Amino acid sequence: MSPIPRRSLLKAAAVAGAAAQFSWALGAKDAEAAPRATAADADPVTLDWLEEGGLGAAPGSTLGVPWPMGTYQQDQTFALTDAAGKDVPVQSWPLAYWPDGSLKWTAHAVGSGSGKLTLAAGTPAAPAEKVTVDKRGGTVDVSTGVITAKIGTSGATLIKSVTRGSTEIARNGRLVLIRQPEIEDEDQGTVKTERFEGAIGGVTVEQTGPVRAVVRIDGKHRKGSRSWLPFSIRLYFYAGADSFRMVHTITYDGKQEPGKASGDFIRGLGVRFTVPMRDESYDRHIRIGGEGTGLLREAVKGITGLRRDPGAAVQAAQYAGQKLPDPATWDQRVTTRLQYIPEWGDYTLAQLSADGFTLRKRTKKGHGWIGAGGGKRASGFGYVGGASGGFSFGLRDFWEKHPAQLDIRDAHTDEAEVTLWLWSPEAQPMDLRFYHDGMGQDTFPEQLEGLNITYEDHEPGFGTPYGIARTSELLFWANESTPAPEKLAEQVEAVRVLPQLAAPPKQLIKAKVFGPGLYSEPDRSTPAKAKIEDHLDFLFSYYKGQVEQRRWYGFWDYGDIMHTYDTVRHQWRYDIGGYAWDNSELSPDLWLWFAYLRSGRADIFRFAEAMTRHTGEVDVYHLGQWAGLGTRHGVQHYADSAKQQRIANTTYRRYYYFLTGDERVGDLMHANVDSDETFLALDPLRKIRTEPYTPDRHALSIGFGTDWSGLVSAWLTEWERKGPKWEKAKARVLSTMETIGAQPNGFVQGSGLYDLDTGRFAVATAPVVGVSHLSAVFGLNELCAELIHLVDVPKFKEAYLDYCRYFNATKAEQAARYGSNFGSLLLFQGHSRLDAYAAVQTGDAALAKRAWTKFYSSDGYTESSPWKTEPVSGPAALVAGSEAAWVATNDTALYGLAAIENLALLGDKMP
Predict the structure, then answer these.
(1) What pLDDT digit, counting tens, does each position of 148-164 carry?
(2) What's the pTM?
(3) pLDDT confidence bin for 309, thresholds 50/70/90
């Protein structure tokens, strides 16, 4: 097929005039891109749980389901049934719309059900016990039909009470922060701390039932006149549940400066409740989760193991958590001496690393601690209460996001206190100071020299944690009595792995979401396909194993992976500049999500979920001068001075949001809608420009690759969701597509001058070749495939297909088309997916052949790569394990995406 002819040069004024005549009617697209909805598109969808066990003890589950364009309109209702055909109550709402106004994604919340469920158009069944929300006085009262939570609207108490029936199970739920104003190295200085409490700034009811209610609480931690460390809390309630879920986010806005001992060092960060204790001390029970579903099962006043025996039935009842018979019926040698049996009121489980926890207890404050055991990895679960009711609590990813801790205090008194520490006060203070003194890199030339040796782009003052965030998830149960061991085990399992319903891959593929045709279910029907599937499995398994072997855990680190391996040290380059934490470089997030979309594998979903939670919070700024920008890969997640759109890219969040309806991730995506303003605050090319440049609101230099892909993903998502700024976002999507397509060299032009007020690129008067190997590897291909499917902008489509056609072309072909070649490029294997996409769009058999040639025989991984690990142990390595020294995360992400997309697009044209 002949090359697309060179575009005529267009003036900006001419483009503006043409734009007035261009029809942006919703749904305008060719027949191939948007076929008419068929009856099959409305077939029921079978939903299943990612892991076995169904909902278990969790309060509920919410998932997203996609629909082919035109299948359902926005007023459509849905019904859910189980395998026996019995109605399951469900609450549904739109998550996203197609451009024609039909439903693209719908969210569905359930508070019951196990096994496979069937979702279809219909009238939803109402729950027997509806969630209700009632605003009265100074509280928001949420009832599940089983429990009622009174949520505060001001002050320091977030949850005033949790009751079950007429029994108050917990009260005074609040946030606790311990600040250490000074940190000294080694054994010098005196440790002083001060305690802050969360102060409510605002409360928003986001959903009111009948199956699911959501209440959001925003504020800051306060002591006296100082307020800092903003928090955003969401509380989730489901119909008929005896539990609720908390999603807890903090954004760091303190001050820590390298080389200085004083600052805002967090010594402890937690959630605390008071639990009324009504039972006799021998009927008060403590349960603390150990390894797996293991539990410490004790009473405040134990009557087992004594010198005198109260009776086997009495002992068994106490161990089971049952109310004991009247002590008058016991062996009186025990009954008359009850006052001499200690009451154990305080318990602490501390998980200061991923490899060990300790458990201790004491009778009360002022008395010594007694070791109560320990182990490797605790579940993060606890319970305190008695025969008349009790409170279970759990912190998800407890050991993965160490240092964490659980405290129970004063269980021997009328009011016990439980604290779930997201950052254990027994750990070292949270030290976020930049890790080196700059080493004389004060000027851009010096910083570029540093980049050339450690791959770190340093700039004084840029390695700051100010504005990064972290989200944690907690679960709470209001029990009518101490649960049986089997019920406790279910609660532990819900804390460890929150049950998640999911739509099957075939529904995602049929709906043509996330880039139509870019992924297909695994296929091992031929030796060549099977070999690629084996390679994909190997890569995922290897990284999953490396997380464990290399201990890529911790409060700020869990969810990320490393960038490059040091073959000499048999270690990932955790301490070398830009080779350390990956921070989404070249889109491992996309690789993982595409691997899940096609397979539905739970282990891949959980890996991608952790990465999405991390990269969207920790690697991106949410406050301050760089809000809306992310940080390039480095030794600390915020260390590098390259603060860029490519890391804040909304593309990486879209998958988790639409698959789960997660509101926090929705917040992150909405916050990026105005990220084009960040180009006024910081020029990403400031260190390498050869001509003077001052950011101008009406002429901002923005690249069509890594920059625009980050911006347009936020705009597209806001438009699809019909968010508060969706009309502006839609206009930005369309105007930038149009003006990129109108450039003399289209995408090959490389960049343009963007007007913040009009949302348009000025169209250059002369063609320029500005191609980078990075432009398309931060989600550009996936986004353009979506955009071309959604809206009909012919020149944009031609411009992008032209870019796809010529990136992997010969230099002679590039020069013949554009007047000059693209210079020295790399990442050809990763770009083979652009060849594949263009081949399908144009029907070009030569492009299809080149896609497989570049995939198999360019750079990256090849069939001759080892595709295996080698054992490594002492004294060569810190811990025994395995290594694949030939694996690099850039290559893994690119190979993974190219393999998945090429198989889907051109699996029938493999050599």
Answers:
(1) 999 999 999 999 999 99
(2) 0.95
(3) very high
In this structure, the number of other CB atoms found within 10 A of the CB of residue 648 comes to: 31
Q: Let me know: does 69 contact 26? Beta carbons within 8 Å.
A: no
User: How far is residue 868's CA from residue 891's CA, in Å, rounded to a whole number?
Assistant: 15
Q: What is the average pLDDT value for the chain, to the nearest integer? A: 94
- State the burial class of residue 426 (Cβ atoms within 10 Å of its Cβ: 0-12, 13-18, 19+): middle
What's the pLDDT tens digit per position in 576-596? Answer: 999 999 999 999 999 999 999
868: tokens are: 């295996």
Q: How far is CA 182 from the centre of its chain?
A: 32
Both tokens assigned to 334:
């025990």
Each residue's pLDDT tens digit, 529-539: 999 999 999 99
| CA-based end-to-end distance of the chain | 20
What is the secondary structure of 824-854 as a DSSP string? S---HHHHHHHHHHHHHHHT-HHHHHHHHHH
| Beta sheet of 45-49, edge-to-edge order | 87-88, 78-82, 117-121, 45-49, 501-502
> Which residue's entry shows tokens 């076995």?
52
CB 702 within 8 A of CB 774: no
Cβ–Cβ < 8 Å for 490, 56: yes
Q: Which residues does 848 contact at the CB level (< 8 Å), separation at least 6?
A: 835, 836, 839, 840, 906, 909
For residues 855 and 899, the answer to whether their CB atoms sit within 8 Å is: yes
Q: What is the DSSP string of 462-492?
A: ----TT-EEEEEEEEEEESSPPPHHHHHHHH
Closest to 164 (Cα-Cα) out of 143, 150, 146: 146
Maximal C-alpha separation, the chain: 102
Closest CA relative to residue 142, chosen from 122, 126, 158, 119: 158
Residue ranges in 65-121 assigned as alpha helix (H)? none
| 508 neighbors 516 (Cβ within 8 angstroms) | no
Helix (H) or strand (E) holding 147: strand 147-152
* Alpha carbons 545 and 564: distance in angstroms, whole number: 16
Q: Residue 52 to residues 48, 108, 607: CA-CA distances in angstroms?
A: 9, 20, 17
Q: Residue 635 burial (CB < 10 Å; 0-12/13-18/19+)?
A: buried
Chain centre to alpha carbon of residue 196: 28
Residues in the chain: 911
CA distances from 571 to 21, 640, 878, 881 (A): 59, 21, 9, 11
Give the start-end residues of each E strand in 626-743.
630-631, 643-644, 700-703
Give the integer Cα–Cα distance in Å for 469 and 616.
Answer: 9
